[in-house]
Amino acid sequence: MSTLNPNPPADDANAPVMGDHTYDGIQEYDNPIPGWWKWLFIATIVFTPIYIVWFHAPGMGRDLIGRYDRAYAANLERKFGGMAPLGDPEADVLLYMNDAEWRPVGVATFASNCATCHGADGSGGSGPNLTDEAFLNVKTAGDLVEVLNNGAAGGAMPAWSTRLHPNAIVLTAAYVAHMRGQNISGGKAAEGDPIPAWGE
Q: Among 76, 98, 114, 143, which one is least packed by beta carbons within 10 Å?
């Protein structure tokens, strides 16, 4: 049986270079890492801070969430072009409260911004239950738009007028109006006072 000569003749240019390390009777070749691999590794190190600054610098909006928000806003702008002109909060909420075509906008906006405090189904959390008949800062359907725009409870309910499109606020208010009276089982106890039916 032939074996590899661990000490090839010095004049053998094609002989493998042996390393100094031996393990369990096996001597290793002294094979260096390929040059292309080293340069690729260095390139990734150089590229990393550029990537971090470009995509994750605060306020630049180049990260995945920022790009999603811009695409979502642009899509809403196009979609809102088909809405009737808005102007009267009370009439607007009543108009879209039972509009199945536009409700998904209110559902999506509520899920993204309101569910944390009011629960995914509106049954309450740190914020009030929106599925019963009692409200804290609302007497009419138009008041829902007012509360969404300007906030309430000393800032516990934030103002969304600077964060959401006005149409999105109206459609979210319409969705909240639609939730009323569902009285979801296990919901938070009623807060505030019962109010007249919408439109009365």
A: 98
CA dihedral in degrees (165, 169, 175, 179; nearest 10)?
Answer: 150
Q: Which residues contact 123 (CB under 8 A, 6 or more apart)?
A: 129, 130, 131, 184, 186, 187, 188
Closest CA to 152 of 160, 164, 142: 160
- CA pair distance 24, 22, nearest whole angstrom: 7
92-138 pLDDT per residue, tens: 999 999 998 888 888 888 988 899 899 989 999 999 999 999 999 99
DSSP codes of every residue in 96-112 = HTT-TTTHHHHHHHHHH
Closest CA to 110 of 187, 169, 183: 169
Dihedral sign of CA atoms 37, 40, 41, 42 in order: positive
| Terminal alpha carbon distance of the chain | 102
Rounded to 10 deg, the angle between the 103-113 and 166-179 helix axes is: 90
Residues with Cβ within 8 Å of 159's Cβ and at least 6 positions away in sequence, in order, are: 149, 150, 151
Buried b (16+ CB within 10 A) or exposed e, 27-62: eeeeeeeeeeeeeeeeeeeeeeeeeeeeeeeeeeee
